[in-house]
Design the sequence.
């Protein structure tokens, strides 16, 4: 990394594509304690404010014929509600507020991260791992609480031939424990990679000859990132629903 | 530039900011705070409100649809009643027309018969008059012929009795 930086500076190009992910204290310098208000705090607070604006202020009128903001909120509500109901069934609906919380946080964090000069909280594995492992632990505990030992039936395929069942059980067990890892790395990886690529192209914009190409590329990737921001929030949420369904109905 | 390089050197030594574990407690703490705040806002205020609004809206829509259905039913009934009234009126009109026609026909027949009778009477009368006139004429002619004959005979110096003259004139008139 260090040698790379020096080499780049020799040719006049400065690439710091990962600097945008640095966690800094908001006020002054110094070590980052667990309570220090940082840019993480700032952008999470902005996400909360946006959610409050959309869902609390937007639906203030409780109108039968909704205003624009209220109808956006209602669309998101309907979208996630239908997803939870379709995937987990009727008895999963009582977990809807938790899933809505996850969806909205990821969606707003992703989109706010697309504002130039902003900080993307979901690009950090620390954040997505908490989300992913949180879902994993909740779902596992819920599975055992609701079904007791029968929850282990999730790994014991009744349809498979008896000889294959232990093998399948091992594979299922491994895949079950890989879930939170893939769940969190998928989100952080997608978001981080897109932002880093944009920064790399932005570095090339310093060279006059290729700056038009570079700006075109930034525009194209930015469009792609807008898609990715929405899709990753959707994917995270629907996978959460799928895992929740496994906890509610462990029998295949 | 040099200080910047040094600074970056320090940060670069930590590698990816994502793997800088010293920031993890901070991020995790603020993430948990954020999630709890979002959850409370959603579950206490936003979601019940939106679900109430949606329920109210679907209730309103259902009621409106039911009302519209009812009104439509009423409209269909009204249309049927109207059609029936129209058909009745038409039938009644046809009946009246037929009745009037029959009345007129009957009256006409009566009048025609009367007129025929009158005409027949008048023509019989005329015929009688004509016959009378004709008879009168024949008598007159006969008389005139007799008188003329008598005068002619007298003029020629003969005398003729009335009987003979009458017979002669009658014989001539027959021819």
Sequence:
């Amino acid at each position: 990394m260090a040698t790379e930086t020096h080499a780049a500076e020799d040719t006049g190009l400065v690439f710091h594509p990962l600097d945008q992910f640095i966690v800094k204290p908001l006020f002054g310098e110094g070590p980052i304690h667990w309570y220090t208000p940082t840019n993480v705090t700032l952008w999470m607070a902005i996400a909360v404010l946006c959610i409050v604006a959309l869902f609390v202020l937007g639906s203030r009128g409780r109108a039968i014929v909704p205003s624009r903001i209220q109808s956006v909120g209602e669309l998101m509500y309907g979208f996630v509600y239908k997803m939870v109901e379709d995937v987990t069934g009727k008895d999963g609906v009582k977990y809807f507020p938790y899933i809505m919380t996850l969806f909205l946080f990821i969606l707003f964090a992703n989109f706010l991260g697309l504002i130039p000069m902003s900080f993307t909280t979901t690009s950090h594995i620390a954040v997505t791992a908490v989300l992913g492992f949180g879902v994993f632990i909740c779902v596992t505990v819920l599975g055992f609480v609701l079904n007791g030992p029968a929850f282990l039936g999730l790994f014991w395929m009744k349809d498979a031939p008896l000889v294959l069942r232990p093998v399948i059980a091992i594979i299922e067990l491994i895949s079950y424990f890989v879930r939170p890892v893939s769940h969190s790395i998928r989100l952080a990886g997608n978001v981080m990679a897109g932002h880093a690529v944009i920064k790399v192209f932005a570095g090339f914009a310093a060279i006059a000859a290729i700056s038009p190409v570079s700006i075109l590329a930034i525009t194209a990737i930015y469009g792609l990132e807008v898609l990715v921001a929405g899709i990753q929030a959707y994917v995270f949420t629907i996978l959460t629903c799928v895992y929740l369904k496994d906890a509610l109905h462990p029998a295949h | 530039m040099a200080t910047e390089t040094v600074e970056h050197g320090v940060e670069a030594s930590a590698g990816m900011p994502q793997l800088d574990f010293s920031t993890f407690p901070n991020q995790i703490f603020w993430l948990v705070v954020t999630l709890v705040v979002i959850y409370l806002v959603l579950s206490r205020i936003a979601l019940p409100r939106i679900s109430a609004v949606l329920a109210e809206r679907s209730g309103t829509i259902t009621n409106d649809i039911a009302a519209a259905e009812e009104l439509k039913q009423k409209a269909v009934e009204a249309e049927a009643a109207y059609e029936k009234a129209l058909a009745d009126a038409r039938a009644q009109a046809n009946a009246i027309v037929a009745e009037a026609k029959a009345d007129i026909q009957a009256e006409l027949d009566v009048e025609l018969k009367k007129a025929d009778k009158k005409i027949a009477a008048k023509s019989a009368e005329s015929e009688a008059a004509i016959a009378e006139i004709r008879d009168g004429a024949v008598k007159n002619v006969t008389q005139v012929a007799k008188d003329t004959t008598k005068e002619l005979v007298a003029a020629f110096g003969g005398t003729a009795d009335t009987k003979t003259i009458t017979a002669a004139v009658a014989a001539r008139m027959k021819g």
Q: What stands out?
A: Residues 18-248 of chain A form one domain. Chain A has one domain: 18-248.
